[in-house]
Amino acid sequence: MDILDNSNLPDISAFSFIPTDEPARQSYYMALLKKTFEERQNLIGRPLTYAVITFGCQMNAHDSEKLEGILSLTGLTASDEDTADIVIYNTCTVRENANQKLYGHLGQLKAKKKKNQEMIIGLCGCMMQQPDIVDYIRDKFKFVDIVFGTFNVFMLAELLCRRYSDGKQVIEVLKEPIKNFENNLPEKRKYPFKTGINIMYGCNNFCTYCIVPHVRGRERSRIPEDIIEEAERFAKDDVTEVMLLGQNVNSYGVNYMEDSEMIKNNPDYDFPDLLRDVCKVDGIRRVRFMTSHPKDLSDKLIEVIRDNPKVCRHIHLPIQAGSNRILKLMNRKYTKEDYLLLVDKIKKELPDVSLTTDIMVGFPGETEEDFLETVDVVDKVGYDQVFTFIYSRRSGTPAAEWEQVPEDVVKERFNRLLKKVSERAAERVGRFKNTINEVLVEDVDSHDENMVTGRMSNNTIVHFKGCKDLIGKYVNVKLTEEKGFYYIGEMV
Ligand code: SAH
Ligand code: SF4
Ligand code: F3S
């Protein structure tokens, strides 16, 4: 059994023993789980439902698509957090408020679980890679049924089978990946027409504030063959937009997970090459990528974007802070001047690009002067969107041990930054007013059912009159009204 998809899950009777090797082992457990679910549904006389709740970034969301793939392949019906029997929280731990959010949700589920005997609660994701958190959950949330981590998403069916077989809490968090099982997992996409493709896992950068390298492990790249094949498979399944995912896509190529003919023939193969190759896949109309670390965004990448209209006109380029002193303390490995030079180069080669960024306020030791350097960058660059965060102390990271900036000072700076960001973004986004742009329609507008919502190549959101039949289609829209971060338009 190589590749599993929604059509070829074997019957459990096809197995005479439990396979020890993957992916056959998970095929066995998925088949067993399917049978278990069937029996329970017959017993209670209604379908069992599931919900996977994503708390984190695109990578986390992509893992959720795999979890949903497993649950739907084994016969469950999708539902929502309020009504589902099987609820899985895919957690994030990048900031402390992400952790608090989980505990809030768990508190509410406890009462529900008392009323619903079929309820199973699962926790996974980055937060579970921290042993102290797992201990806390074992201790304080005994009603949680299964706990697993970022390296064993592929084991969901096995863990559920274990839970059903003895009724005990199952905790299994791997410390590192055993192998790349990405190619062998079913997947249920949030949008049928677009999805993410992991090109690499982990991070080697160790920015001093960041927990990600501690919970996602060292950088490992998938071989290009696998990535391109996955893009081809998606394209055959009506996907037209893919997003290549990694914590720092520009360093793609470090530590390949398997032997690769392509790499043997071209040892210098890098992210721009990969981007170009994914663009060649028939049926793929748009390629995005996330995230680019400014320290190694190459001229070659800018050229590949420029020469390939399929690459979306959007670069997310997190700066984090504008002060060179703070950037150094953060271990970001670029200066404000390097960054601004890079922005100039990008704007010159890609005049229609939109730039977005992440900024943190209140990093340990940040002074008013340091902060003003950050505001200055926002002024100079003219971002289309800025994701602003208050620095959050993550235990185990170096910056957590350093002297912290008082909360009231941080809050005041944060508000000042927000004001600057929204002024500048509104000016910047407005530049496309009255132009006609291709929009990929994603959804019916959540506020008005006569409107739909879509995205331009540069990631700007557009709302316009239309019906649900347009979802997944590319249409030309004239941008008539500019609303800060988005546009109202008319289909032409
Ligand atoms: N790999 C990406 C970032 C992933 S985390 C990069 O290097 O750009 C997403 C964002 O969360 C970061 O860009 C940063 O702005 C923010 N972040 C990370 N750790 C944080 C912390 N401890 N406190 C507040 N924000 C943090
Ligand atoms: Fe975190 Fe830095 Fe790695 Fe991004 S590059 S995930 S901010 S350590
Ligand atoms: Fe959060 Fe993990 Fe992503 S910590 S931001 S879900 S990599």
What descriptors fit this protein?
36% helix; 492 residues; Transcription Regulator spoIIAA; disordered N terminus; 14 helices; binds iron/sulfur cluster; 4 domains; binds FE3-S4 cluster; single chain; alpha/beta; Rossmann fold
Describe the structure.
By secondary structure, the chain is an alpha/beta fold. The chain has 14 helices and 19 strands. A six-stranded parallel beta sheet has the order 2-1-3-4-5-6, sandwiched between helices. Strands 15-16-17-19-18 form a five-stranded mixed beta barrel. The chain has four domains: 6-172, Response regulator (Rossmann fold); 190-312, Transcription Regulator spoIIAA; 315-431, Transcription Regulator spoIIAA, CATH 3.30.750; 433-491, Beta Barrel (OB fold (Dihydrolipoamide Acetyltransferase, E2P)). The radius of gyration is 23 Å and the shape is globular. The structure holds S-adenosyl-L-homocysteine, iron/sulfur cluster (SF4) and FE3-S4 cluster. FE3-S4 cluster binds at residues 56-57, 59-60, 92-94, 125-126, 212, 215-216. Its main location: cytoplasm. This is tRNA-2-methylthio-N(6)-dimethylallyladenosine synthase.
List the helices and strands and how they pair.
Blueprint: H1 24-44, E1 49-54, H2 58-73, E2 77-78, E3 86-91, H3 96-115, E4 120-125, H4 131-140, E5 146-148, H5 156-166, E6 170-172, E7 194-198, E8 200-201, H6 212-216, E9 220-221, H7 224-236, E10 241-245, H8 261-265, H9 271-279, E11 286-290, H10 299-307, E12 314-316, H11 324-330, H12 336-349, E13 354-361, H13 368-381, E14 385-390, H14 407-429, E15 436-444, E16 451-456, E17 461-465, E18 474-483, E19 486-491
Parallel strand pairs: 1-2, 1-3, 3-4, 4-5, 5-6, 7-10, 10-11, 12-13, 13-14, 17-19
Antiparallel strand pairs: 8-9, 15-16, 15-18, 16-17, 18-19
Helix pairs in contact: 1-5, 9-10, 12-13, 13-14
Bound molecules: S-adenosyl-L-homocysteine, iron/sulfur cluster (SF4) and FE3-S4 cluster.
